[in-house]
DNA sequence: TCTTGTTAGATTGTCGACAATCTGATTGTC
DNA sequence: GACAATCAGATTGTCGACAATCTAACAAGA
């Protein structure tokens, strides 16, 4: 038998595709926080019945990026500054843990993947593709979670990121100035390749410090904004 | 106007009730890991159509206690020894964080609630109600998460617990010996009331150590067991 | 004017039926 | 007997229609 690593075949249900479509729309900011999702309209636009759409929505509710009020509707979550602050402080703890677990498991494949994802961020930055820049930056950051060999930790991280990605996207969208072209991940990557674990942990803290601080000030300004209706 | 704190009225959809029913059945071990959930049979038993049942199932899939394979079925998750180990090690980290955050927020209401939950565990123990004993013990442990004032942390803990509760229940069910009558939470509670935060953190680690070690050895024995069909 | 009751429209929740897919048994062929 | 093709039954996925509920506008009464 040939030694081929067959990846799992794609999900073939409408539901799965709807989930992907909706998630993308939310995480890129096409659907704004607080906005209501009208089932009939969306199902007509997607040429799908309401059943799979509703099931998809239930998934995203549990994923934490939608919230549902019985007989009232399903809405994009309205993340508060406190939510971001909470996620941020938890992220610090998880980062330390992830680095600690990943540390002894680092190998050539890890370093290669690290470089590859770093390259993806740099390319997105060059192309001024802000959405992709956020996406790739989070993927770069997520490598330590994927490598830590702890499924529960990884799952936790993924739930955390989706909401963060959404808010980073809105943030970028709001300040329509050019994104910093310099490479802020250089130190992070090289530290992960180095020998000083404590230094890497320390830097990871300060690294996300920067991103979050800006995000937080943005969120605090939005706090008194009225929520978007339908 | 009278000063009454009205709590939110109960969810009135069938879906919500189905979720509660299924969750309870899984977490108490009535539905075994690996078991398949036949939609038609369950919907007939509950006198409900498949639509709300399926939506409920999608929620529980995202909650991590069910897994779904398209066109094959939805099954109770088959937790491995590694999953428990992963959850266990993450729990250590989260416990430390939760205690740290809760520490400055402790007040009389916290201590009262602590005693109340502790009492609930002791009562369940006296009554030899193992299911309730697990439930109350986890609720006691969960207080530091509820009090930490961090919604993301709390959410993470709740996801973690549901799977743990399920496995603790199966474990208790398997070894049909009497549950230890002595009170293992006495020290934990008194440390949370004390002044030494580090000591409380240290004990929380060792405390869950005990529970998990036994659970792990049980899970490792089960590892080669064939998965339950329908 | 303010409050309360009513009602029409829109939207969500639920249902029963049909389509797509899978599984296992059966048949046919070598 | 081993293997592939076929087929029937069961189960999941999807659909369109109906029931339950909410919202907002309007009317009636204090």
Rounded to an integer in angstroms, the radius of gyration calculated over CA atoms of chain A is 19 Å
Give the strand order of the largest sheet of chain A, numbering strands 1, 2, ... along the chain: 1-3-2
The CATH superfamily label of the largest domain in chain A reads: GntR ligand-binding domain-like
Detail the poorly predicted runs of chain A.
Answer: 226-230
Helix content of chain A: 55-70%
> Number of helical runs of chain A?
9
The number of strands of chain A is: 3
CATH architecture of the largest domain in chain A: Up-down Bundle
How many structural domains does the protein architecture of chain A include?
2
What oligomeric state is this? homodimer
Main sheet makeup of chain A: 3 strands, antiparallel
Topology of chain A as a string of helices (H) and strands (E):
HEHHEEHHHHHH
Strand content of chain A: under 5%
Protein name (chains A, B): DNA-binding GntR family transcriptional regulator
Organism (chains A, B): Mesorhizobium sangaii
Pfam family, one (chains A, B): FCD
GO molecular function (chains A, B): DNA binding; DNA-binding transcription factor activity
